[in-house]
Write a structure and sequence with these properties.
By secondary structure, the chain is of the alpha/beta class. The chain has twelve helices and eight strands. α3 links the parallel β3 and β4. α1 packs parallel to α2 and α1 packs parallel to α12. The protein binds 1,3-dihydroxyacetonephosphate.
Length: 254
């Protein structure tokens, strides 16, 4: 079975003191309640706090970035390169989050370029995919998500694909309190796995697919009980230590 992964996307939240408290509490909770052999835990703080969080998290919690620039170092004011993220201690990066797609110009093509840049630097791309409410209501969810996946991974070899983590995050479930039902999420996850199987059967068995979108301490266990849901990408609930630890525990117990 694939090892579970729970990742906290802090989005644009945090201050030095609060981060320190949160990470300290999460570490204590993980130590007391979660078997580290059963679940990998990561957090994605705002980039300015990566150094700080990396220092606090030690080896117990992986640290990643919420975005990267698809270009190498140079005249790109305000951006961060893959090399800088590695230097700061990141081992993963979120790519194509719906907030970046809708507000910051991350087109499917740019997402594909960012995935390539991450892989070239040995960062794990956590590739975020998801349909809008309109697309779901018109019955297009599976096709929309599969198309996002195909464009983002076009031209990658099997060895590169095996290094991906995928996060299915229906846009209508993000920050809304309206979680996808376990059946709705499982249907999309299974479809994504069938897309992976088209590339190579073994890939489908290997790649972890996380669910994100109003996942919380109450609903995590039933989502993670689905055959193709390997953990979660958690927004709001990752800012509360007890809730985040409970979600990690649910993932480890699945
Ligand atoms: P919420 O858990 O706050 O809905 O956010 C999900 C998300 O966007 C994680 O990347």
């Amino acid at each position: 079975m694939r090892k579970a992964l729970v990742a906290g996307n802090w989005k644009m939240n945090g201050r030095a003191e609060a981060n320190s408290e949160l990470v300290t509490q999460v570490l204590a909770g993980l130590d007391a309640q979660v078997d580290s052999d059963s679940v990998d835990v990561m957090v994605f703080p705002p980039s300015i706090f990566i150094h700080q969080v990396k220092g606090l998290a030690g080896d117990k919690i992986g640290v990643g970035a919420q975005n990267l620039c698809e270009f190498g170092d140079g005249a790109f004011t305000g951006e961060l390169s893959s090399g800088m993220l590695v230097d700061a201690g990141c081992n993963a990066v979120l790519i194509g989050h719906s907030e970046r797609r809708s507000m910051f110009g991350d087109t499917d093509e740019r997402v594909a370029a960012k995935v390539k840049a991450a892989l070239a630097a040995d960062l794990t791309p956590v590739l975020c995919l998801g349909e809008s409410l309109e697309q779901r209501d018109s019955g297009d969810a599976l096709e929309v998500v599969a198309e996002q996946f195909r464009i983002a991974t076009e031209g990658l070899g099997e060895e590169q694909m095996a290094r991906l983590v995928i996060a299915y995050e229906p846009v209508w479930a993000i920050g809304t309190g309206r979680t996808a039902t376990p059946e709705q999420a499982q249907e999309v996850h299974a479809h994504l796995r069938s897309e992976l199987a088209k590339v190579e059967a073994e890939l489908a068995a290997k790649v972890r697919i996380l669910y994100g979108g109003s996942c919380n301490a109450k609903n995590a266990a039933e989502l993670f009980a689905q055959a193709d849901i390997d953990g979660g990408l958690i927004g709001g609930a990752s800012l509360k230590a007890n809730d985040f630890v409970a979600i990690c525990q649910a993932a480890g117990a699945r």
